[in-house]
Amino acid sequence: MLPFLIIAFLVVNFLYFFMEMPVLAFGFTDWSNVIIAWGILFLFISALILLNKFRLFISKTAWGEVLKKLFPQLFQERPHVVDIANYQNQGQNYKRYRMLGLVGIILLVVGVSNLLILPILTSAPMLYSSSYRGLLGEVKESSFTSDIEPINLSQIRIVDEETARKLAEKIIGEVPALGSEVQIGELSLQKVREKLYYVAPLEHRGIFQWLTNYTRGSKGFVMVSATNPQDVHLVQSVNGKEVYLKYQMKGFFFDYLPRYVYFNGFFNIGISDFSFEIDDDLNPYWVVTLYKNKVGYHGSDAVGAVIVNAQTGEISRHTIEDLPRWIDRVQPESYVYKQVKDWGDYINGFWNSVFAKMGTLKPTGDELHLIYGNDDSVYWYTRITSSGKDGSSVGFILINSRTKEAKWYKVSGADEGGAKKSAEGQVQEKSYRAGYPILYNIGGVPTYIAPLKDKEGLLKAVSFISVENYNLVGVGADIEGGLRAYQQVLASKGNQFVPSQENKALKLQGKISRVSQVVKGGESYFYFMIEGDNRIFVGSSNTSPKIPLVKVGDLISVTANDTKENTLSITEFIGENY
Fold first, then answer.
1. Can you state the angle between helices 32-50 and 2-20, rounded to 10 degrees?
2. How many Å apart are CA 143 and CA 444, to the nearest integer?
3. Are residues 292 and 433 in the same domain?
4. Handedness of CA 145, 440, 151, 367 (dihedral sign)
5. Transmembrane stretches, by residue range (predicted)?
6. pTM for the complete prediction?
7. What's the pLDDT band for 505 if we cut at 50, 70, 90?
């Protein structure tokens, strides 16, 4: 009976490690269950062996009756014969069993302490609120226009995650039988070859599909442009070689990515945030965050990353400082969000966060969003509001998604919810709904840009909303149209809401050298060039009724925002000779 129990116990322990993958390090509680189980086993074995010594005492109790039924062989009467030769050995064995019981007690104490007591003593926010607030690091107050360069129009995101998934599902459905074998995994926004894409692995749909393809894995991944809804790719081969994803989140046994990483030496550190990314050569990888708990048993904080080749399983470990350039993020959204929340909650200590809430701040929503700058940096973004009754927005915070460098911008104004309502209000007769607004620097003006979609989730228009005044909205059929409408709205207000004049108005006079008309979304736009200037100027009849009459050789004067781009939208047009 006893050998069977020990074997069963070992099997259960193996299954626990195989399924739960406990982190074997201080600051983690999941290994406590194993220690407690071993403690109980040692006590149980010790009690069974030593039971013969005091079985007469036990037999007189209710527990003795129960044990007699469970283990009758232990209560069998033995002949009263003293084995003098083995008497000394029996005494030594009893000492060993008592020691085994003592070890069991120690393991129980350690396991219970690690599970229940130490987390309270070392991690309670009431005792360590300053440590939690400090996890985000130094938060520097900075200038938006100096840190975030004006975005190139070609890099503005007009495809949100909902639309990207629908486009990905559409291209999967165009391949016969592919949809019955694979499903689209989690979409990851990333920059590939200087363009923004949503990238997602094609993963096994279930265990039967895995059994069919377990030697190679599922085939390929999808790429959906975040800036152009027509740019969608199903990638199943790269440079003539077929792409198979053997290690993935929908794998089984050791093809299951977290288990594969854990049993390849990463059992003593936390692993999290399994993000699918591709390099500029379109080779697929998994980027896995390594983390430690910095405030006792809580305060999870990224300390590095593991890069796993999704095809071969090759693993490389990196610190935050030596990550390859093509990796966009290693700071998990959930960790950064919690740290931002603690930074705002514990400004004046724990008790203030519970009762008075004087001066406390909080994120506007329950999630963060990635934004991309022209400087190749990637940031987690959220607006910050006061925790008082008014809940007014007091600014926003950007956290570098690789280094976790945090910067705080005191730019009050509309939050994302208000921006969405303003955008939808401009097209309420069409019942369009706005996607999540993303923050950009548009000519020095902090601006939300949100896609407008129909009931089917298809992109129909693009809206620009001023952060400082959400009544300033420009809507167009595409990015260029929306930007022109937005700039005209700003100009009509005399730029009084523009926080920075670093991008000054550009005034030019000259003769038209080339002109062309383009119709977009039912509206005519006129593209022209001025003699001696290589830039292209764009305007519509909304700018001036004289624009449709312009021809080569006409003398004109124009005003435009000098955004340093090659194509400039004009805010004023004067025909000097007509």
1. 180
2. 11
3. no
4. positive
5. 35-51, 99-121
6. 0.81
7. confident
Total tally of structural domains belonging to the chain = 5
The distance between the two most distant Cα atoms of the chain, rounded to a whole number of Å, is: 130
**Cβ(157)–Cβ(227) below 8 Å:** yes
Rg from Cα positions in the chain: 33
Torsion region of 553: left, alpha or beta (phi above 0 gives left; psi -120 to 50 gives alpha): left
HEC profile of 363-411: ECCCCCEEEECCCCCEEEEEEEEECCCCCCEEEEEEEECCCCCEEEECC
Residues of the domain holding 563: 505-575
Which of 361, 389, 409 terminates a domain? The answer is: 409
∠ CA 54-55-60 to the nearest 5 degrees?
110
Give the contacts of 351 (CB within 8 A, at least 6 positions apart).
Answer: none
Residue 165 contacts residue 457 (beta carbons within 8 Å) = no
Q: Tens digit of pLDDT for each residue in 16-41?
A: 999 999 999 999 999 999 999 999 98
Q: Are residues 481 and 550 in the same domain?
A: no
Task: Please check whether residues 420 and 405 belong to one and the same domain.
Answer: no
Which amino acid is present at 310?
Answer: A
- Asked if 449 and 505 count as a contact pair (C-beta separation under 8 A), the reply is no
Average pLDDT, the chain: 87
- CA gap 97, 51 in Å, rounded: 11
Helix (H) or strand (E) holding 560: strand 555-561
**Termini Cα distance of the chain:** 106
Residue 49 has pLDDT above 60, yes or no: yes
Query: Is residue 178 exposed (0-12), middle (13-18) or buried (19+ Cβ within 10 Å)?
Result: middle
Nearest alpha-carbon partner for 369 in 326, 412, 411, 340: 340
- What number is the average pLDDT over the span 54-66? 62
d(CA 562, CA 224): 32
Residue 420 sits in the same domain as residue 565: no
Q: What is the pLDDT of residue 78?
A: 55
The rounded distance, in Å, linking the Cα atoms of 490 and 448 is 14
The CA distance from 542 to 232, in Å, is: 34
